[in-house]
Amino acid sequence: MTIAALAPYASHAARSRGRRHAEADAPTRSCFQRDRDRIVHSTAFRRLVYKTQVFLNHEGDLFRTRLTHSLEVAQLGRSIGRSLRLDEDLIETIALAHDLGHTPFGHAGQDVLDECMAADGGFEHNLQSLRVVDQLEQRYPAFDGLNLCYESREGILKHCARSKAEQLEAQEPQGVAYRFLHGFQPSLEAQLCNLADEVAYNAHDIDDGVRSGLLELEQLREVPLVDRYLRETLSAYPQLQGKRLLFETIRRMLSQQVYDIVDASSAAIEAAAPADEHAVRQAPPLIRFSSEMRRESSALKKFLFAKLYRHPQVQAQRQKAEQVLRELFSIYRADPGLLPDGGDGSRSHARACADYIAGMTDRFALKEHERLTGRRLFD
């Protein structure tokens, strides 16, 4: 999308707050395009293909991973962003980078590392994603990290506790944590990625849940949002069943959520009338569902939490995953020589252990655990 086609309230690459380390402009790409390309070529991005979404990576080839989830968020984000005349390159950058800090084994891994790091600052995957792009990727001779633009980094940091925001603000005054201390909003592109993340999660977890056999399509009739499009699909195709019925139901649900976001957000933007991206930050959140769709999406999330994420089979796998990472942390903490760099001295040993484990794929964590303990916890 050309600059002329962007709305005045969109993030304009030409007006970016820039990078922490100055670089010359690229002759053929905007700064947001360069950020996207740096993410795609990063080591952390490639690792997402073997990191869990809900089901562990070894449980099946067709279940979502962090990589496929990130691609789906990017697709949804770009589709909605184009209708709202936002910067699609920035949307794609944020979407592709938002899970770079996720641990192996999904949220189970985050919970374990937060527990293990309780005395050393804790662990949170949003902060870790920022840490990956700011420090841990080492590809350039002049600086650590990927040296992304402020707007990309702002979008990656979706959540931040006040204590952490104060620490970041001390290191980078009026930087990416400033808004958490003063109640400002991020760009519309960042707001959109947050909502596209939720939409993608709900849709593909339905798909994976039914595909795994842990959910039955008939169960989903108790969720109004799903039931409406299941009935609509069967009305149009009375004989449809199996995968095609599931896929068409999800497709219709996704489409309506996209249209709902476009309509509700357009109305909110028109009412707030932000003159530019700076005015966006002073306004309330402007990218949103309608009130009815928000209620229905929340009901779907509650259903998935109760019926899928807390399913006994998922919980059993989660407990094994927690044991793997808890034992790995203990082993590395006791012997710094086991870390690849032996501890480079630029961070605490505990943080070095957390960084190393967080960067692992599911299968590498399992192999390392078996190598170091002589035990295999997963079949």
UniProtKB/TrEMBL annotation:
Alphabetically list the UniProt keywords.
Hydrolase
Top-level taxon of the source organism: Bacteria
Instruction: Give the SUPFAM superfamilies listed for this entry.
Output: HD-domain/PDEase-like
Gene3D superfamilies assigned: Hypothetical protein af1432
InterPro entries xref list? dGTPase, dGTPase-like, dNTPase_2, HD/PDEase_dom, HD_domain, PHydrolase_assoc_dom
Ranges where the HD domain occurs = 66-202
Can the keyword Hydrolase be found in this entry's annotation?
yes
- Family matches, as Pfam families: HD (PF01966), HD_assoc (PF13286)
User: Does the record's keyword annotation contain Hydrolase?
Assistant: yes
Q: Which family does it belong to?
A: Belongs to the dGTPase family. Type 2 subfamily.
- Entry protein name: Deoxyguanosinetriphosphate triphosphohydrolase-like protein
